[in-house]
Amino acid sequence: MNIVPGGRVGTNGIDGGLEGQDSSIVNMSGGVVEGGFSTFTAESVLNLTGGAIGGTGINFIGNGQLLVSGGGFSTNTFVGSNATAGISGGVFESQLRIRGMAQATISGGSFEDSIFALDTSAITIFGSGFNFPLGELTASSGTLADGTPLNVDFARASTATITLIPEPSTALRLAAGLVGLGVDRREWLRSRRLHLRDG
User: Fold this and answer.
1) Taking the model in full, what pTM does it have?
2) Fewest CB within 10 A of the end CB: N or C in the chain?
3) pLDDT value, residue 2
């Protein structure tokens, strides 16, 4: 199923969300999905590059996949069971809840409400400039890998994980700095030995 600009699935007030089953793939590049609760089960995929999804919620269970590079959600988004989410763009106006054994990677997008890691789920966030000490992560601000500011509250169950990974250029600058310090230290030691020997 392809939903393109100008397309519409469901109408306000009528239970008419999307449903993905088995190995179905829904590509959405525009349009609006309104009303109802959308569900993706088994091996189904939602690839959102544009448009908007509203209604009472959207749920990914089984081994479903949520891929978001554009568009937006004005409803709570649930990713559970063994489902996966890859988020590199888009707008989340409501909560994003990762639960069960689900996994999510976030490298871009705009988050206007909380992000939850529940049960034994795992969330990996790529970016830089996060303002948190090591340990429990409850709220953070920084910049996602796509350059979008991140300023959001997190909720994490004790059995879930949220991992923040510096975007590659930050990690490379850090590594180059450490290598540079090592070279400077070796140069200093070498000059010091020469000075002592000739001294």
Assistant:
1) 0.78
2) C
3) 65
